[in-house]
Amino acid sequence: MWQHKRLSVALPAYNEEQNIAHAVKDFLSVGVVDEVVVADNNSTDRTVEVASRAGARVIREMRQGYGFACQRALKEATGDLIVLAEPDGTFLGKDILKLLAYAEDFEFVLGTRTSRVFIWEGANMGLFLKWGNWAVAKLLQLLFNGPSLTDVGCTMRLIHRKALRKIQRRFSVGGSHFSPEMMVLGLLYNIPMVEVSLNYCSRIGESKITGQLSRAVRVGLAMIGLILRYRLTHWGFWRHRRRRRHSMRRS
What we know:
Elements: E1 7-13, H1 20-28, E2 35-40, H2 47-54, E3 57-60, H3 66-76, E4 81-84, H4 96-100, E5 108-112, H5 127-143, E6 157-160, H6 161-167, H7 178-188, E7 193-197, H8 213-233, H9 235-250
Parallel strand pairs: 1-2, 1-4, 2-3, 5-7
Antiparallel strand pairs: 4-6, 5-6
Helix pairs in contact: 1-2, 5-8, 7-8
């Protein structure tokens, strides 16, 4: 509980047996987390059993894909505030407090992993990933008139339930490029958002999204394609909302 609001942590998981118990306990140890929800995405190891024993509520998402698992975890979370994160050891539970520090003024608080002083030794954030995430984030910022953005692929973020309800019915990405879709929809629906630097640690095992350069390039291109498609297909939508906001201010 934080300021009389229930707080959920939502974790997508696929074959995370090695670290998920530590992740669940780490998030619960912060003292403000009411529940940890794990959306298991057809794991073939003991992820479900280990997560349950650690104190998480585990649900199954049969549609294979990181985005589908994120969507299900967010949907099943019951908190007034929901933190989406990863269970692979790359994020620290205590950084929830950083997100909460801005949660009163912003309905969507994004994490960023691109600040050098917060990147731990061994973290999967080389120059290509760091500047690639920065460049795509700046593209998103430019095309959608967003706030300062420096990381388009950081999973860890906080969103108010009322803000999530505005955008979740429009989720369409089931793959690894789900994160920027959530950001784009937040901007399209004029949800107040801000970005906060988080610790980024070395993970246990290889990343299923950016563990290989070729895979990282494919995900990056998919993110760029997604952003451009939204820009082209929602041009009229965005202009309509902007005119509507201006007219409301005048009245």
